[in-house]
Amino acid sequence: MPKVGIMPCLDLKDGRVVKGVNFTELKDAGDPVECAKTYYLHGADELALLDIGATDEKRGTTLGVVRSIAEVIQIPLTVGGGVNSVESAGAVLSAGADRVSVGTAGFMNPKLFKELALSFGRDSVVAAVDVDRNPQLPSGYEIYIHGGKTPTGRDALIWMEEVQQEGAGSLLVTSKACDGTGTGYDLELLRLIKSRVELPVIASGGAGTFAHFLAAAQAGADVLLAASVFHFGQIGIGELKEFLAEHGFC
Predict the structure, then answer these.
(1) pLDDT tens digits, residue range 195-233?
(2) CATH class for the region spanning 5-246
(3) CA torsion 171→142→161→81, rounded to 10°?
(4) In sequence order, what are the residues at sequence separation of 6 or more whose Cβ sits closer than 8 angstroms to the Cβ of residue 87?
(5) Helices marked H in 32-186
(6) What residues are annotated to the active site?
(7) Domains of the chain, residue spans
């Protein structure tokens, strides 16, 4: 069976897990450590912690939360938000993360991916890519930064090819249009990425039903990231993994 991982995502703001729609209208979704422990016990393959206020607030990731989560789980932990240098990445990894996720800082300084890969290994470096549709660009997709707030005018596929060359080990791709809507992942985007980029792809944005997860796996996603459906009890991780296994994915 082809393998696909399930990755609950904890968006952290003011010490709490939050979730919104299209990166806005944030709602409280619980304590990050309790959420992380619950997802681990329920069979999650990986976990993401994204400190969504860190970049805008010009600070580093909340390391205390990273340490507390690392103490209660035994699955890979990817942490993003405020990682903008080798030093800040090292602090996050030392606090217990297995990988760092880099978005805005990597866009502003693409060489950062190479520096991180040389310092910690390529497998420790995730390029966080927020995209939205733009028919005026060659691929039809544009890169956004600053938590999905700022359009850059850069073609998403060209940018992903660049970060692959610079040293990123995987891509965390979030569709701004689909984020939090529960209408499904952007399958066209996933297929396009898999046709052009060799890196593993973590698909993010839009999961609302079992069928959405299956469609993303069939489109080539290596890891399926979701938040709302797990936070608010719409889909159980165990049941989801059983469903995917019935359709040929372990």
Answers:
(1) 999 999 999 999 999 999 999 999 999 999 999 899 889
(2) alpha beta
(3) -40
(4) none
(5) 32-41, 63-72, 86-94, 104-108, 111-120, 156-166
(6) 11, 130
(7) 5-246
